[in-house]
Amino acid sequence: MTDEQWLAIGRKPLEFRKGDIVRRFQEEFFEIREVSDNGKTFLVNNNTNRVKRYFRFNRYHCDLICPVERRLDFKEMMGDE
Prior knowledge:
The model has no long low-confidence stretch (mean pLDDT 83). It is globular and about 35 Å long. It has a 5-stranded antiparallel β-sheet, with no helix packed on it.
């Protein structure tokens, strides 16, 4: 994303937040679970085949796919956990 695109969604460039959906390089999609205090790394998880895996990613290696403010989680809408 360009700096202008980040600003258009109300964020500083490379500002990731808990709940954002990201993709590292051309890999799978991940949900941010925790952002470090300096904002440069974050803990992500991916529920693949019902197995939770956790990774720590550098923000410079990730693309924002969906900001947390724009997510639509069907499980929450339906009352499922």
